[in-house]
Design brief:
The protein has 245 residues and is an all-alpha fold. It contains 13 helices and no strands. Helix 7 packs antiparallel against helix 8, helix 7 runs parallel beside helix 9 and helix 8 runs antiparallel to helix 9. The longest helix is centred in the middle third of the chain and has 22 residues. InterPro entries: FANCC.
């Protein structure tokens, strides 16, 4: 997924830079998706000031949800094409996780986007249940972010309680939100290294954690100076993983 997302970022950048060359319109490269949805994904997050990131993300997720649940429900091919578009622009899933933890607003669209990213084949009832689980995780992490001090045990308890359920998708979403918490939330950063030591000791979660650190770092590096702290921390944690394994 990370390789695909980096390739897409490079492709879009090259497309916009090579203005003198004859080229097909962008919609020609994404023929199976609504043009308005493609253009929403192509908007670069760093070009959106302040709260506009949340607003655009909410709008984008709402458009994708409508396309999937109304227009894209007719065939598995349409479902796959819409999910594949999201995978190409996976930075929006990373931003959805970040905004779910940082924003005061509660957006069901952002929750839906994150769940669809990991479980495109879920039926509506399954997806609704997964969204309920994801919302409870967001609420717990948000409450932790307001506490003067937190411990890694708080995150260990959250991880073990949510991943004991026999639903792999829930585990992936919980992991994504926890890694986002330690990278983007000031309180979370204070226990990032201790949490990584916990995962290294556990062993079995290492591939998923390193994958998340890699592509969230890639997303954050596209967003400018504001996210330098998160990028540096992610890279430091990746190095510690390599040394600890």
């Amino acid at each position: 997924m990370t390789i695909m997302q980096v390739f897409t970022q490079c492709f879009v950048q090259a497309y916009h830079e090579n203005n003198k060359q004859h080229k097909f319109p962008l919609k020609a490269y994404f023929p199976y998706n609504p043009h308005s949805l493609v253009m929403a994904f192509l908007k670069h997050p760093s070009d959106l000031p302040g709260t506009s990131v949340y607003q655009h993300l909410d709008h984008l997720a709402g458009m994708l949800k409508t396309t999937v649940e109304v227009k894209g429900s007719e065939s598995s091919d349409e479902l796959f094409n819409n999910w594949f578009l999201l995978i190409h622009f996976g930075e929006w899933a990373d931003l959805a996780a970040e905004q779910l933890l940082l924003s005061q607003a509660e957006s069901s669209n952002l929750l839906w986007l994150l769940v669809f990213y990991y479980a495109p084949n879920n039926e509506n009832q399954q997806r609704t249940q997964t969204m309920v689980e994801a919302r409870s995780v967001c609420d717990y992490l948000t409450s932790l972010s307001r506490m003067p001090t937190i411990s890694v045990a708080d995150l260990q308890t959250l991880f073990s309680s949510k991943t004991s359920v026999n639903q792999p998708v829930t585990k992936h979403i919980v992991m994504h939100l926890i890694i986002s918490f330690v990278l983007f939330i000031p309180n979370g950063r204070t226990i990032a290294r201790e949490l990584i030591a916990y995962f290294i000791a556990g062993g079995c979660e290492i591939p998923e954690v390193t994958g998340l650190l890699t592509h969230i770092s890639n997303t954050a590096s596209q967003l400018g100076v504001k996210y330098q702290c998160s990028v540096k921390l992610a890279n430091d944690l990746l190095q510690e993983f390599q040394c600890g394994v």
